[in-house]
């Protein structure tokens, strides 16, 4: 019952994947601290400091915390008001041979900041994999509907035709840019390494009796043991909080993309042209039983706004880090960084669920085209008349008058667009009446949209997903089932 009596973030309890929720859990955080302490001890031993084999063995055997150890750490933190020292003490209890060398020469940010960098890199990997799957799903949708004509909109007013598949490529292209940005951010992340209290490595220089080469070797070796290719060449007590800006920026940009996609789907749902999945037992409204609300897309928009705003926290936090550090970043980052990744994770899984169940209504789309296409076809009709020897200005005036009459039927009387019927009844257009069906074929108004879809998928999407990581993610992916 305790879980029901205290606030829990819905990001973890309601929406996020198990993998992302675990990444930012206490269990993962503190076991990562222990691994970092182990890496430091191994490197210090290799470079000649008195670290016993028993110390290394006991640390290796106790990297995961038991419930009892969590309780001990909580009691210690309450007493010491210092989370890192509480966990140093707790680790030492289960690895007594290492108690005297755990955290040797290090400052708290050795574990807190290096762990955060590990989480940022891993979290980006999860998002990259999820995004690859989403792009794959939407690409299949684009290919399926590559040549299905649909009314285009500019200013949300009827414009020239496009295709359902071509519209989807606009979504995918932005997601490809997000994929690129996430990959760049992940691949650029370095390690804080072992830099000491103000980044000067003074404590480690003292440990190694002034041997600068060994201190440099220690930094390099711990970096390697922790799985990073390089460490930031200089740091203060912390790694620069500008790194958080660089990581959250592509997440915020992904939020903007997701919001645009979900908004398009919400608008199309209103037009009854395309709908997101809707289960047979799903209730759209507690009062209006007929409703089919696009709640998944609405959720994406809601969370996307949250994700975009979180980037501002990183900007402001970085800007106020005085000199070698202040602690006013800590509480903010404990909230901002996990929430950004959990929110990004939820947005991608929800969009994947939507993409896997999008329902297209071709007859509704065709009906809307039929209401607008006669007006769009007027230029084609004029050109056909001219080809038969008619006068362009005269034809234009004839079409203009008939168009206004048809517009009156639609706007003032609420009737159907009867422009073509008026054209058929007017003797002036007798020379081209046998061409009207061809002139009004929607397929003749979509330009190169189908070919653009084919080329885009072939030349841009396929190469972007043609790597081991994306291929494995797509191959292992399963249909997303949302819990709520």
Automatic annotation (TrEMBL):
Coiled-coil intervals, chain numbering: none
EC number: 4.3.2.2
Cross-referenced Pfam families: ADSL_C (PF10397), Lyase_1 (PF00206)
Catalyzed reactions per annotation: (2S)-2-[5-amino-1-(5-phospho-beta-D-ribosyl)imidazole-4-carboxamido]succinate = 5-amino-1-(5-phospho-beta-D-ribosyl)imidazole-4-carboxamide + fumarate; N(6)-(1,2-dicarboxyethyl)-AMP = fumarate + AMP
Domain of life: Eukaryota
Protein name: Adenylosuccinate lyase
Pathway(s) of this molecule: Purine metabolism; AMP biosynthesis via de novo pathway; AMP from IMP: step 2/2; Purine metabolism; IMP biosynthesis via de novo pathway; 5-amino-1-(5-phospho-D-ribosyl)imidazole-4-carboxamide from 5-amino-1-(5-phospho-D-ribosyl)imidazole-4-carboxylate: step 2/2
Keywords: Lyase, Purine biosynthesis
Residues in Adenylosuccinate lyase C-terminal domain copies: 373-457
Matching Gene3D superfamilies: 1.10.275.60, Fumarase/aspartase (C-terminal domain), Fumarase/aspartase (Central domain)
Keyword Membrane: no
Annotated organism of origin: Hohenbuehelia grisea
